[in-house]
């Protein structure tokens, strides 16, 4: 076992983690845990862009208002305004860092870079790099991280838990490598940038989604988890049950794409005045309802009317990918279906990313800052990553470090057991199926009760399976089952429909609705 020590330990290498590393490394030593699967995570696959007030025709109050509407009454207005006000300087930092945003060469351009519009926004404020913004941002920041002498990357480690002293402060993390060897990584400040919990569901919009690992590890130390019931399902994921996940950006609808049912008819205009540009929860439920009414397991997204030149100009990545899957956007509509996309809930933090655990911060999708409320507005996610990573860096400069003299322990795990791990994989598949069937776009009290019972059975089966021998895969599944059970509990406690949580038993808003808050103490007893 090795025990490297650094000033800052950052777990996760998406936009939030990379931004924080670069924002703090000039004055602090940084250990960045960035597993290979981070290249298949949410940040790199973010297509649409980053929302910010950049055009002289736009203003902060308008962006704040749009975000509050999308959040359906549960946003923290202070967090919303903080994020929006700090957006332009974060974008300027990216531009100065060399991110190749798409320029606007039109004669009457009001801003040097092209700004598009997405669902929920009443202005064009989405800056983008063609239709592969996440990839452009990650690649640019990663090059700078690799060149920085104060940043040490660890690619072969999988973090399994956090280290804690006798006073409750976080001292770092423990991880296991590919040779099943343990490593303790101590740090003065530990930052979780581990992504959301979309991997708890069967269908997702990224090839290698996070499953809320950072959330449950923080809860195990005593952090509060907030708004777990608000899981966003992106309305338009490429439908191919046998192929890899691929997101069809909201910008496709922003530029005029139409959703069609099996009869080839638009159905959104009759449901919402904003039609295809209604907030994601509205569009996802409409698609789900349309699928239930027809024989096809998907609907269509049609951009043929935009013309081949516009399609190639705005969506070269999407066009190329669809061609590789046998769909020509200029001649055919795209089969699409809603899929788990973004966790609006997570580890409760303040405006600096600080959690309730001393020494522990959380940024990006794993955090719940209050920005998104009951539903995230399009392209506010990367904005949040940038703003809170930079805010976290500023806070760490002034926060007193935690003690480094406490003893700590970690589980003693044997080598992997192939027989046990095969059974664990089957249980994990059962978990994802349960969540997709009963805790997805449309919920009911009966369905949530069934989910609770199924997850309890999975937990019992796992406990019996590992009574004699625990493996790394089993320990990870144990964490995910716990997070899934907390998610179900949060949904059961919300006796209303709001934002991303829609219940057939409670179809209306409740008065005085509040964010939900849960901790490890809310887990059912074994």
From TrEMBL:
It is found in: Cytoplasm. The active site is at 280 (proton acceptor). SUPFAM superfamilies: FAD/NAD(P)-binding domain (SSF51905), Succinate dehydrogenase/fumarate reductase flavoprotein C-terminal domain (SSF46977), Succinate dehydrogenase/fumarate reductase flavoprotein, catalytic domain (SSF56425). Its cofactor is FAD. Residues 498-526 are annotated as: Disordered. One of its GO terms (biological process) is 'de novo' NAD+ biosynthetic process from L-aspartate. GO terms for molecular function: L-aspartate oxidase activity. Its EC number is 1.4.3.16. Belongs to the FAD-dependent oxidoreductase 2 family. NadB subfamily. This is L-aspartate oxidase.
